Structure formats: structure tokens, C-alpha cells
Amino acid sequence: MLRENQDRICAYFAVDFDLRVGTKLSAALDAVCQARAPARFLAGNGLACDFQWPDDRQHLYVSPTRVAVETLGLAPWLEHLDLHLDVISAALRALDVTVLNRIGFKVIAFLPLEMQQAEAIDLMFGAFLAGRELLAPILGTVVDPLVHVEAEQAGFKYNLDLTTVNAEQASQWFLRLPNLDKMVKDKTLDPGLRDFRDRIAKEDSFLFDVDAWQNKIAASDLKQFATSAFDFADELAGRCVRQLHAHPDSGFGRLVDAMLEERGLSGGHGVEFPPFQRSKPRS
Amino acid sequence: MAYQGYSSGTADSGSTADSNQASVGDLARGTTETVEVFHEWTPQPTNSSVERVIDIDRFNPPDNVRLVSHVVADFGKGFRSPEYLISIRRREAAKIAESVRGLAEWSESTQFQVWTQQPFEQLRLLIQRLSEAEQSAECPHEGNSCEILRQLRDTFLNLGWRHYRRREVRDCVTAILVYLARVYEVSSNDAELAMDQLFDLDMDPAVIPQLSCVQDDREADVSS
Prior knowledge:
By secondary structure, chain A is an alpha+beta fold. Chain A has one domain (about 5-260). Chain A is built from nine helices and nine strands. Chain A has helices at about 25-35, 75-80, 80-95, 115-125, 130-140, 165-175, 190-200, 220-245, 250-260, and strands at about 10-15, 40-45, 50-55, 60, 65-70, 100-110, 145-155, 155-165, 205-220. Chain B is mainly α. In chain B, about 45% of the residues lie in helices and about 10% in strands. Chain B has six helices and three strands, in the order E-E-E-H-H-H-H-H-H. In chain B, helix 1 (about 80-100) runs antiparallel to helix 2. Chain B is elongated and about 80 Å long. Chain B starts with 13 loop residues before the first strand and ends with a helix.
């Protein structure tokens, strides 16, 4: 689901560790520059520094407690994954970090649903929320729900926000994202940023915002986490969209699959539906 | 965050009139009065009319009355996207399948007819929902789904509910509904296959309302 919508996604990868100051931080900045020369450099407030590659729509943030990469679009993350991880690893080695307190991967995706927002909202009830009739006595008329979930699955802890946005809301949501100016040459003039905004503001969409993380991970497991976290986010996004569509692979689909298996009619997912066949000519 | 999309389909249809600009008229022009009427088009439009009485200044009556009629069509755009209707069909079909499956528990009951009311009503509502959306759609969709659903609905009519005491009937109908809950697109061939399956079980998936001469005579008497 995420791979098919790479140009409607912002990605953020961050590792957190115990405070590092002094010469180790300086060494980390130096290591980053050696691993990948920055096109633009920004020294922020305090000790944090930002290395930027506007042409590639990405930036790297280094602070005494965090190293992070953010990309505009998913392709800048996936296509340069090894490079990103090499640079982060170089920084971590210079910082003398062996255990990460937290390692996280965040995706904000504006997924097209090919339906209008009001329709998608209607589907949210029953898919992710109780029915309108149950909520009405308590909440009145719910016109625009936002689902926030904190959960654990497949070894990941994650925060998930789901909502539907119309074109204008998508545009506002996107333009409110921090750090956009760090991934483009000029936030007010950059055509890539405008194109991205226009793309997600072309139609009503499903906002999928997930932040998946693990705690106390060895710094050497960066790549394993990066790939598995992306796969997890991709799978979760697909499941959420299918759930909204009531697709057989989830939600109600599980119900009917269970029914079929109970009757020995189907082997489960991906099996052709057998009993719906012509048995004898109609007289 | 603020909701800026179309309002829900339960919004009342009808018309409202706004004559804010009409009470006095434009003294600069002197003689033109404007009356605005708004017609809101909803997913389930109903016939309605609007009437306003405009006070006319008898000492300075307008020479012209400008009537502006606005048709607000945004509401009408809602709830008929093909993707949405497919989702509704999948979701509701799965629920109806579960209802039909649940009939097994009451198959020996003397009040079995009462328990068949739930799936029958669910079928009727889903047909109504899909049909209404299709009527106002720019291109037809879910027509084949509706055809299968109508077949299933009709199997309950004319004492057809008795067939649902049989396990093979429930399994067949459940299988058809599960199929509707699984597939993205329903073809005309599917509708034909469904009818064959139902015929094979000696069910009547195409009930034609019986014409009653007595009823016709009664209606004729009333009209006369």
C-alpha cells in the first residue's frame, strides 16, 4: 500500500540514545560530513545540527540525544536506505553509542480512496469505530472522527492516527508539517513541494500516520529494524485500507473466512471460492 | 479538525428562501428587488416547494423583481462513489450472510418465519441503498449485485422462507452472500449462476407479484 503511493508520503527515521556532548558530538558531526557531504548545513539552537540535501528531498538531524533522517516522499528513503543507515551508523560510532534507547520509523501517508470524504467517514463507523447509532446518544452527531491508537504488534510499539481528509484539509495538514523547509531549497518557491501538495490535494484521502518503534536495540541492528519497520508500516496501511473497504483480508472478511472454513468450503485467503458454480442446466 | 466535506446523507432536502436583499430594494437603482431561493439536492431528494411573501413598499414599489434560484448540488454528490458502494455491498453482504447462517439455530422452531425477517429486512435495505445510489449515479454500477440481492430477497416471498429450514439452502445462500462480500466486481454471469443455484434448490428467485382481480375491482370501485 505504501509502495504504490510513494509520492504521497513523508517518512521519518530516528534513533535516540543517552546524552552525548563534548568531543563525541563534534566527532559525530565530522563523521557525517565525511560519510556524505552536505549540500546545505544548518546549525540550530543549542547543540543540534542539520545536514540537508534539498535536491534529494531529505535532511539529517544530529543532536546530543538523537540522530534522525526525514524525507519528502518515500522514494528518497527507500532508494538511499543503505546510504542513510551508513551515515547514521558513522554518527553513532563517533558518539560511542552501542545501545539505542529508542529506534523509530514514522510514516505520514495521504492514501487515495477513490471516494468522497463523507463516504469514507461513513465507513469509519463499523470499521474503526462503533456504529453511529451507538455513539449518537453520547457524542451527538459525529461528523469527522479521528482515530488514535497506541498498540503493540509484531514486536513493534506504535502510535497510529487514522482519519479522512478532504482536499483542503490534506493541504493544510501537509503544510503544517515541520521541517518541510529543510527538505527543499525554498519552501515558498520550490515546485516539488507545490507538486506534492497539489497531488494530495487533488482528491479526498485517507490519512495514515503511524509511528512504530522499539526500545533498547543494539546499534548494529539498524538495518534489520529499518526494513522490518517499513514492512510493518506497509502491511498495517494495507490492512487499514482494506478494513475501511471491508475487504475479505480483514475485518468482516475474517468473519466470512471463518464461516467458510467451518463448512470446509475454503482453505482461507487467496483460495478461489468454490461453491458458486453452475451445477446443472436450468430447465 | 474542522469538517469541511459534504454533510451526511440524512440532511433534509428542500428549499429555503432568503430575501435579505429584498426587503428594501436598492434605493440607488430605485426599482429592483432581489429574491434568492436555495434548493438543496440531497442523496435522497424529496419533492418540496418553497413560498415567500415579500412585502412591497407601496409608496416606492419596485419596477423589477429579480428572482435568483440556487441549486446546491454538493450534497447530492455524496454517497454514490463506486468504491463506496462496493464497500457497502461487501460489508452488508457479510452481515446478511451471518444472519442467514444464524437461522440454523431456529430451523426447527414453529416461529421460524419470525427469524427470517432479519435477513429479509437486511436484504431489502441493502437493495434500497444500492438502487437509490445507482439511480443518481453518472454511470451504472452494482446493478448485478442488486440483481442477486433481489433474487435472494424473493426467495423469502410466497412462503419461500420455509426453504431456509434446510441446511443446503442456508449454505447456498450464505455462499452467494459471502461471494458478494468478497469480490470487487459482480458480473452478470454471477447473477445468472446465482439464479441457477437457487433454482437447483427448488427455490423461486424471481417472484412476480400476483395480480388479483378482486383487488383491481375494488380499486375500480374506489376510483369511480
